[in-house]
Amino acid sequence: MLVGVTQTPALPSMDVLRQRAEHLWDALPAEVLDLAALFDGAGHEFALVGGPVRDAFLGRSSSDLDFATSARPNDTEALLRQWTRSTWDMGREFGTIGGRRGDLVVEITTFRADEYDGVTRKPVVAFGDSLDGDLARRDFTVNAMAVRLPSKEFVDLHGGLEDLGGGLLRTPVEAEVSFGDDPLRMMRAARFASQLGFEIEPVTFAAMSRLAERISMVSAERVRDELTKLLLGSHVRAGLAGLVDSGVAEHVLPELPALKLEVDEHHHHKDVYEHTLTVVEQAIDLETGPDGAVPAPDLILRLAALLHDIGKPPTKRHEPGGGVSFHHHEVVGAKMTRRRMKELRFDKDTIKAVSHLVELHLRFHGYVDARWSDSAVRRYVTDAGDQLERLHRLTRADVTTRNRRRAERLSFAYDDLEQRIADLREQEEIDSIRPDLDGNQIMEILGIGPGREVGMAYRHMLEVRMEHGPLPLERAREELLAWWKGQGS
User: Locate the HD domain: which residues (predicted)?
Assistant: First the structure.
């Protein structure tokens, strides 16, 4: 069975693709042809390769272009400097030199023939001598097409154009060989399923399943980057399903397939895994335009949706009467989220934001049971901090019940909470609540100097502010003095 989703609606037909193949490169910028002429004049092969070729057939343009050449890195750099003064070393040991001319950015890589040695986490680099060999070592046929320059000869040795028309991801050579050379290509298959809406061809998918364990030899940083690209795609459910169904997720994000073992407490969903995929999709639907509160695509929101229930498996308990509970799974899940994201080398700010959302994602349910006081609303906003808009969306996305009446009740309750927050914003500074008295005022009123007592008093006055809202100065002074008297001072 093929893995993936319905093909992207905009996918061109084979007739259109063949027509494009005849004239697609006529509009290449003159600067590119000038660069190609330099390499050709020096006796080197030079070709536009990979993603830019694929995207050109799909009607997508890019100012960043990838080229492959027979020239070695030092020769590439020397030729590139005749074309532009703006060059940089993007990884000389991997054969890649970059350059910019105006808005045009190019990456030029020496023909490659690298593979893993089966022990280390880095590929062993070997430079190749032909375009044909370079294309054979690329990840998928749709990325193994090229255009020789300056002759503008289209090269498609592995049926990439046909696979592009069929929306298929297939390796140029035997899948076991390709994935053995670079196990990260298994994650790329899932990533491209997410980005392009393509299906993973059955033989290729079967090889992913057999070699899934080899992904463990790839560095955490490279895995993180592929997972990030997958989550920022347009068909995220397909990409995640590819990782889980192939077994690759067991080695890079084991918390996700673990959810398949857990039926949710309401028995309204097949399992928590299916619920999670639905929450991810619904969270994506709640992202906003560029000027909105949570512009799409938003990695933090998508990660939080993906990980929000990972605390359920370790907290599952069978209750008397046949029920199932997951008490405090949000707290356990937040700790698991921090640990997994640290292992994947995410940055500290992203880890903090995602784990905070996971920890708070159930807070709203108390509002459904009993309408909160203004004090509780203030605490909700304060605890959410700069993640409030994402928390709004995560909480709404977490409603996947098929019970229409319950869904409407939850939606109405959250509408009411958001209106309460808006009303309080009009009355007071709810988004950055501070005590009515600052540290200097506290010391002056109490007649004390800096020290532990000032911090205690400040925290008390913050609680007063939360409970009662903004107070007149004299009332705040009375509250402080009453508290101070109660301390026995």
Answer: 272-394
Q: What pLDDT is recorded for position 436?
A: 83
- 3-class secondary structure, 217: helix
User: Are 175 and 320 contained in the same domain?
Assistant: no
Over residues 62-85, mean pLDDT: 92
**What pLDDT shows up at residue 367?**
78
Rounded CA separation 411/260 (Å)? 27
The total number of structural domains in the chain stands at 3
Is the same domain home to 90 and 216? yes
Q: Residue 115 forms beta bridges with which residues?
A: 124
Please report the pLDDT score of residue 446 as a whole number.
86
DSSP β-ladder status, 153-155 and 146-148: antiparallel
Helical segments of 111-263, H only: 131-136, 160-166, 175-181, 184-196, 202-211, 220-231, 236-246, 249-252, 255-258
Alpha-carbon 295 to chain mean position = 13
Whole-prediction pTM: 0.84
∠ CA 188-190-193, rounded to 5°: 105
Same domain? For 336 and 207 the reply is: no
> How many angstroms separate the CA atoms of 390 and 388, rounded?
5
What domain range includes position 54?
Answer: 14-245
With CA atoms as reference, report the closest residue to 155 among 102, 111, 123, 218.
111
CA distances to 49, 81, 106, 109 from 87, rounded to whole Å, are 20, 7, 9, 13
Phi–psi pair at 488, nearest 5 degrees: 80, 20
Please indicate, yes or no, whether residues 205 and 335 belong to a single structural domain of this protein: no
Question: Does 22 score more than 50 pLDDT?
Answer: yes
CB 139 within 8 A of CB 130: no
First to last CA, the chain: 76
Q: Assess whether 329 and 465 both reside in one domain.
A: no
Lowest mean pLDDT among 215-229, 231-245, 353-367: 353-367
Q: What is the Cα–Cα distance from 115 to 59, expressed in whole angstroms? A: 32
Which pLDDT does position 9 carry in this prediction?
47
Q: Would you say residue 254 lies in a domain? A: no
In-domain check, residue 265: no
251 lies in some domain: no
